[in-house]
Amino acid sequence: MNLYEYEAKQIFANYDIAVPPSIRITKAEEINTQLAQAISQSKLSFPVTLKCQVLSGGRGKAGGIKFAKDMDEAETLAKDLLKLKINDLPTQSLLIEPKMAIAKELYLAVTLDRNHGCAIFIASAEGGVEIESSHNVVTSRIPYPYHAYIARDLAAALNLQGNLLVKVADIANKLYKLFVAMDLDLAEINPLVINGAGEVIALDGKVIANDDALGRQPYFAGWLENHLDGLSSREQKSKMTGLNLVELSGNIGILCNGAGLTMATMDMVKEFGGQPANFLDAGGGADQKKTLAALEIVQENPDVKVILLNILGGITACDEVARALVEFIDKHPKRQIVVRLRGNNQQLAEEILAKRNVKLFPGLEDAVKEAIKCAV
Asked: Is residue 9 included in any domain, yes or no?
């Protein structure tokens, strides 16, 4: 789950990482109330920065960050920015902060390195856009258990010294702490700036929370529904149901349990000349209700001519899937569906489906060929 910048910065502030003072508005008229109040309270002062809050990168290049020297200019810019789409995603709100005098920019992030099976620091003595093209990026594997010297070594590798080394290392320690505590896939500060007073401040932030860990993070309870921009309506529905759906351009709806099995099924469909309409992984413990929901989501795609269901019952019981199929077939009797069910409670599933004259394919190759035949 991608977070908005203002949400990322709130998490940073919760872990004592300095962020600029700010307000957030959703309507241009709020400039004359919220911004005026913040200025009267000396929380903000002109010039200010107005930043589109959108779940997309490339905001700066797309014109999603502007500077205002007074109230009239701020209101005019706010009206335009709130209408702006960046990579086809709408601006949900604006974050307004003071325009900061920057002495130096850095880049700092913690993310997962799946090749090494651990978290890593990524840092650079440069910040800003296109950091990935910089030749001065430092990466450092983070061992477990964690020790504070890891962050000091990282800061030293950026050629920082003295008090600045200590401050940046302290922020790196805090960034790793929140990364672990909140089950994140990414915690990024770009840029991490040093202002004229020598303060180190997170001027921008990006946080990605691990979808599979949201259930054990009370902080994120109820957030998912408002963080699904960029997904189709069916992809949004699948996310809210706990399913993993990626829509494609074919006409064979694919429903499996497990990402590896789903990918293998898609590969075989392609190998024999078919075109998958989607990737849908119902997960390892899909019950009757979840399987039925998955079938309905695939069914809703008007391009789908046949559904190919390939389930290997382990944690998922085949009879649960069979009952979902019966309910689905009763509701959609004209829908073509090809079924392969193997594993846990397979015999019981066969008995259930025999009452609806559903043919079961023992081999995946035969099932795929049948699905392609039906899709022609």
From this structure: no
